[in-house]
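Archive entry. Fields below.
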Amino acid sequence: MSEETTSSEDDITAIETPVYLTYNFTAGEATTRFLHQVRKGKVMGQRCPGCGNVYAPARGSCAACGLPTSEEVELGNKATVQSFTIVWIPIPNNPIQPPYIVANLVPDGANISFIHLMSECDNDSVHIGQRVEAVWKPEEEWDYAMDNIRYFRPLDEPDVPIEMIGKVPLSGWEGKA
Amino acid sequence: MKDIAIVSFAQSDCRRDAGACNEVELIMPVIEQAMQAVGLNNSQDVDFTCSGSCDYQQGAAFAFVMGVDALGAVPPIKESHVEMDAAWALYESMLKISMGQAESALIYGFGKSSPGELPTVLSQQLDPYYLAPLWVDSVSLAALQARVLLDRGLLSEQDMAAVVARSRANAKANNPHAQLAGDVSVEELLAESPWVAPLRKHDCCPISDGASAMVICTIEKARAWGKPYAVIRGIDHRMESHNIGARDLTRSVSTELAAAQAGVDRGPVEVAELYAPFSHQEIILSQALGLDDSTEINPSGGVLAGNLMMASGLSRIGEVATRIMSGDVRRGVAHATSGPCLQHNLVAVLEAA
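PREDICTED_STRUCTURE:
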């Protein structure tokens, strides 16, 4: 390439090469079992045969023990706030208007949290250890999806001490199932 | 590198579609089998764990991280991953042991290719400026390579069909995990029409879902465990240019270099397991490794019988190790490849203890 050519052309600093790939994504066998139950309005966990921990939604193994979790356990409609954040930034295409609460919630009978929304609450008074319950969509709208539960709302129950979060049995906190 | 022992190996069936199974569900059975063979429970019982996989295959970001759920990694373990075939996870594990940072390692590879269009997905590993934007798929590139070989008279379509016929027959005789196996003649194969000319469909490995796992350790540890083992006497890997046009596609220079470095010619090669995803590539590799009729090539059927992308390279090594551990052979060579038209090659020499 001559000197004249290089000096007369702009440097190319970027090119566009769009990538589009199509996949038939599958959920996993354990998650498939979970989604079939959510379709029927039930939140199911799976118990580790080693340590006894219950996972929801389960991925097919106990991450701590490396054992398959085959035993299905029905979980409660109530849960405990393990952690939360208040979202102030609008997310494109998200119909929920900020500010709103996203929380890690441990359902009664499970030992690991999942992420869901909280509503019908005073954002400033949401706190760790708070007791909440699921508010489901009408049955005719149920699908294979976690948003069959619209959100969780606060319960008038005593807080769960931090060391007990993730250990509340299916019978509930202080026996209040 | 110091001698290292392979003490166990396990592999799943090669299936065209593993259905809903996620990575954890693919991995767990082979890890359990490989660990139990040496009396171990989970990754807590080895010093290091290393895996090979590629998230592009199943289109699930960080699937390789989620795979760790299969290991029993609490309390935390020393763990690593290569976005390559698990044969290179074995290589990393050997370095770890050679540096004295571990005495034992669990290695696994998995591939779930069924959710996507694998040949197209593989086009995205090409150089990002000239080739990837053209979406040149892996089968088309292999077809270009076969065309060069045929046009130069370096092999014939009969030679290629003979590779396939032997693969199918070996898979039928020796490999319960094979996806493609059976008795088929060269004449029958040549009667089929070209698919991506000059390749016929049977010249190309099938697309498979599954996983494989291996446990390695120092020779001292293998003796202490008291189980049969195979010794990795030499290993090396070499890579060629990403620019297809700059390479001599009729031979595998990188395999020749790796073979010399690994010491393939320092003894008889009774058995060789070669990662040749296309029939003509088995011929290229045999020549690069200097193999002749005295070597049994791909007794498992090789990857033409089932190709677990990201696990098949480890499985080639496992296939040779298994034959040594059972006492069937005393010395063999295993090969793994990565990239288009045999771009990157690993050669391992395995011997009886």
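CURATOR_NOTE: Residues 29-164 of chain A form one domain.
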